[in-house]
Amino acid sequence: MQAFIALFLVSHRMAVLAPADIVILALYFGLVVFIGFYAKGKANTSEDFFLAGREMTAWIAGLSFVSANLGSLELMGWAGASYQYGILAAHWYWIGAIPAMLFLGIVMMPFYYISKTHSVPGYLQLRFGEGARGLAAISFGVMTILMSGVNMYAMAVVMQTILGWNITFSIWVGAATVALYVMLGGLRSAIINEVLQFVLIWAGAAMVPILGLVEAGGWTKLKAQIAVNMGSGDYMHMWKTLGHFKDNPMGVHWTGIVFGLGFVISFGYWTTDFLVVQRVLSANNLRAAKMAPIIGSIFKMAVPLIVIVPGLLALAVLKNPDGTLMHLVPADIAKVTGQHSYDDVLPLMLIRYCGPGLLGLGITALVAGFMSGMAGNVSAFSTVWTYDIYGAFINKKASDKHYVAMGRWSTVIGMLVSIGTAYLVMNAASIMDYVQALFSFFVAPLFGTVILGMLWKRATHWGGFLGLLAGTMASVGMFLWVHTNAHALRYIAMSADAQPMAENLYRALWSWLICVGVTVVVSYMTKPVPIEQLGGLVYGATPIPDDGAKTLWQKPIFWAIVVIVVFFVLNLIFW
Amino acid sequence: MEHHEHKADPTEISIWFFCGILVLAYGLVLLVTGLAEFHTPPPNEVLLPWLQPLHPTLWWGLLMTVLGGIYTVRFRPRRS
């Protein structure tokens, strides 16, 4: 009993691994490295290395697509957000993902797939020329490496917090393992491991909501308990409290959720972020490429069960050793007071319900999530570096073998730079927030450029390039404005009651509008691209090929409709 | 454009086999741990007495063993 109480009192180590936990963790590391060596024999050409030979079925591409996004930063961050903001956090999994994933599958995938591009910057080159490609490739390359480093550091901190592991040990073991399997087997190895990691994340995390709901006495009693503990019923409504910024714990408005998150951020991330799109490009035919995001969306819709529900359960059941309700606090306060931070919700709940063996499985799931985040970033970086920077601007006429070698080297070098980023973040933790904000600068305007490129024949090269540049600069400008003058938020979010979360939503919306506006104006002022150069790239200039579906069950559009109906029903249930 | 399909090498090991073998191995570890804990519950189950009769490690281990076993057998590598 004393040992267990100590788990909660000793802030620098929450748990100690039992032999069964260590066996589970060791089996995982052994298998992922084996997969790297196994996939090496099948990564001989650039198509094999960077696009897994385009041999993946819809299920595998779909699971990998959703798994690449399901890193542990995501798992732990949104579990913490659901503790902080209630069920509103589920918007980032439903309206913030599902419509965009379906749009990618049904509308955009045919263009990515039939243009035979190897990357999203590659599509921009075909549609808008080298300027837009260079801008997108360099910004994406820098951001993926930084994000990989942030992931690495976050994993090391979690391992230190939960198990007391040395930060340097965690960084180097995690980085070396990921670098080894991605360098050896390329995207095929990353995809096999991502599917494995997806299964593992569910196996390791599912016990928390199951046992938590048993403890809480079911969903209805959970809602009632949270209302008692928090003194408000606002934590359990997804839409009811979004009529005004001050009516909900997040300080947002429904327009920000629908247009900022549901349209711009979500469509920007899921349809133009090459980290996820690369997984779908590995599909073995057009129908599989269309079905992969739809299959991914079904699993994405279920993720709140293992991410949002644990945060909500913590509001109801998490207690201090003396029986009083435990209050989690923001990370900066936690450092001073020694309390647990919001991000500790998932580990705390794992320790609460999982004894030896199950705890090891849960910890392995977190490690798997971090590694899938790192592998996703580094494999996407190596592709964009090799095709869109090195192959496009430095060495245009090398052999295929040379590009595969470059892919392997760039994986290792990318990982070493990421390790440098991890140490940089370690010495100045606030950089972590800035790096994550940086990533958001490019996503919203890039979506404006890609969507106009695909749907509007009149968009010109200069329009695309200047629109992307203007949107990105506007996003950076708004970020700096709010961070040097907090009152600026009222202008960006159009309300004095807006909270920081609203900034991300409205900044994305404005930067997208600016990108689209500049692209349209500049396009009308510049010479149109001849229609014959737009074949395979733009709606109206491209015959959409038959995807081979014969029956209703094989048609991607049928499954997209099923998913969107379920999506609406879920939103109504949790209204 | 014609409908174009890339075929995977039929001799390669299925991704589902890798998933099956890992889930099976984990299931067996949990099953053994769950059996060992049947009469000597771990500290968290002592602290939360309602957890003890549920034996989550044992049942989760059994479920993973069965599912992992099915996937391992169904997708085991075969010589063509």
Automatic annotation (TrEMBL), chain A:
GO terms for CC?
plasma membrane
Q: Name one Pfam family in it.
A: SSF
Major subcellular site? membrane
Any stretches that span the bilayer, and where are they? 16-38, 58-80, 92-114, 135-156, 162-183, 195-214, 252-277, 298-318, 350-371, 378-394, 406-425, 437-456, 462-484, 505-525, 557-574
What InterPro entries would the database entry show? Na/Glc_symporter_sf, Na/solute_symporter, Na/solute_symporter_CS
The entry lists its GO molecular-function terms as: D-glucose:sodium symporter activity
| Top-level taxon | Bacteria
- Gene3D superfamilies with a match to the protein in the record: Sodium/glucose cotransporter (1.20.1730.10)
- Family, similarity comment: Belongs to the sodium:solute symporter (SSF) (TC 2.A.21) family.
Which NCBIfam families would you find in this protein's record? sss
Please give the name of this protein.
Sodium:solute symporter
Organism, by scientific name, is: Edaphobacter acidisoli
From TrEMBL, chain B:
Instruction: Give the highest taxon in the source lineage.
Output: Bacteria
Q: What is this protein called?
A: Uncharacterized protein
Residue ranges spanning the membrane: these are 15-38, 58-75
Origin organism of this chain?
Edaphobacter acidisoli
Q: Which UniProt keywords apply?
A: Membrane, Transmembrane, Transmembrane helix
